[in-house]
Amino acid sequence: MLNKSDIISKILSEKSRTPHSEKGSVYAPANIALCKYWGKRNEILNLPMTSSLSISLQEKGSHFAFEVVDTEDVLHLNEKIISAEDPFYQNLFSFIGLFRKSHSPRLHIRIHSTIPIAAGLASSASGFASVVKGLDALYGWHLEPWELSILARLGSGSACRSIWPGFVEWQKGIREDGMDSFGVPLDLTWPALRIGLLLVSCEKKNISSRKAMALTQENSPLYRAWPKQVTQDLDAIKIALANQDFRDLGEASERNALIMHKTMMAATPSIDYSTPQTHEYVQQIWQLRQEGLSIYFTQDAGPNLKLLFLENTEAEVVQAFPQIEIIQPF
Ligand code: 2P0
After folding, report:
1. Which atom of ligand 1 is least distant from the CA of 153?
2. Which segments in the chain show pLDDT lower than 70?
3. Are residues 90 and 56 in the same domain?
4. Which terminus of the chain is more exposed, N or C, with fewer CB under 10 A?
């Protein structure tokens, strides 16, 4: 069975592992899947069962700054020092350890996340995408974006979509080594599209998406239907994007999210990321739609909702949800 280091060696091959820059900073956006990734064909390399498709969130994401230092590794997250015992620190440096030669160089890393961490808001996606961009700058590799996408996937599956702005399809690939499983940006924009972040809670979720995914795949009787569902929804979403048909886009995206959540709810033990507030918002969205407002939602591994709507309905959406944070992806 191939491991992460095997894939890193394939991509870096003869490239230098000696720092090229003493310091630098990079940025990667968070992304929201319109057609979800849920389930793996390889848990070590984060190879997915299905393809997926996302929209990147422009200025919501991870700023990653590095500096080579003589002392121990240091990590600041949102201006606060993180202890070496913290799982966040350990995760980050064990990922970086896959690329460094015998813990060298030591690094002072500052991550500034403009999106709440670990609440199903894709912070790990922008996080790992920014780390691989940072390593590329540190070592001066000048890797192609698709190569960065593969490296980011080794940190967290959905991170492979956070290498680009705009719409990105993560093509699942079929190779055992996953060298054909990476993000591909779609050559289209949609300037009128809006994403609204409707926050319910930013507390850490009680089951990680990694565990929830594995459990769903292992024993949800509904999982058998999931890959076929994704194929249908992905086709519908791509056609809707090509035609700029907002209703078709909203319907397919909302359906895909709902089916993902029903599928995990049918696992034993059942996985439910929603709170009563999530359900209330969903009812409110459906009610507004009945009244003629073209608004849809998607939901990831957390209780928060992401609303989809167009520029010309922004005022009505804000009236219904005054607390909403609006993102203009293009
Ligand atoms: C997605 N999610 O497509 C789906 C929808 C959450 C719900 O990808 O185990 O952090 O690191 O590959 O990417 C969240 O899972 O999981 C996720 P790993 P990841 O955005």
Report:
1. 12
2. 117-122
3. yes
4. N
